[in-house]
Each structure stands twice: as C-alpha cells, then as structure tokens.
Amino acid sequence: MGNHEYSGQCAPGNGSMWSNTTFSVGCYEMVPRKRDKSSSKRGPLKVRVRGLVSNSQAVYDKAEEICNQLDAGTYTGPKNVKV
To answer: Does residue 83 sit within a domain?
Structure first.
C-alpha cells in the first residue's frame, strides 16, 4: 500500500474567501510522477470527508484516521464520510 494524505482547497485557514458553513477534504494516495520518479503527486480520490467549518478539527482528525487505515490497507468504510 502507498502513502495516503489529505488536502482541501476550501478548508478553513487555507486562505479561502468562501463563507460556507461546511467544507471537505479528500484522502489521496501519493503516486510517483511520470517524469521525475523522486517526487510524487496526488493520485485519484479515495475518500471525501466533509463537515462543519465550526468543527474543522473533527474533519481533519477523521481524515487523518482514514489515511492511516488506507496506508494499512484496513479501510472498509464509505467513499463519502460526514463528520
């Protein structure tokens, strides 16, 4: 299994100008680039985690938990998770 990370462009504190009440982050497997094998890029989305901006830490914690399970090959949950 590869290394998994999460990211979200509209996450709170990410310089986003949106005034939304919810946001999401995606969990991705990091894959090597075709030209430069020493660097990596995000692969296809594996799991989307969404929740309230006012409870953003819970979204990040759940995304981290899911990434750890994806790394271990033990994640069996849904593709979309609401916190």
So the answer is: no
Question: What pLDDT, in 10s, does the model give residues 44-79?
Answer: 999 999 999 888 899 999 999 999 999 999 999 999
How many C-alpha atoms does 41 have within 13 Å on its Cβ side?
A: 7
What range does the domain containing 26 cover? 4-78
Helix (H) or strand (E) holding 6: strand 4-7
Alpha-carbon distance of 37 to 69, in angstroms, equals: 25
Could you tell me the two tokens for 76?
């069996």
Question: What separation in angstroms does the CA of 75 have from each of 53, 63, 71?
Answer: 25, 12, 9
> Is pTM, for the whole model, over 0.90?
no
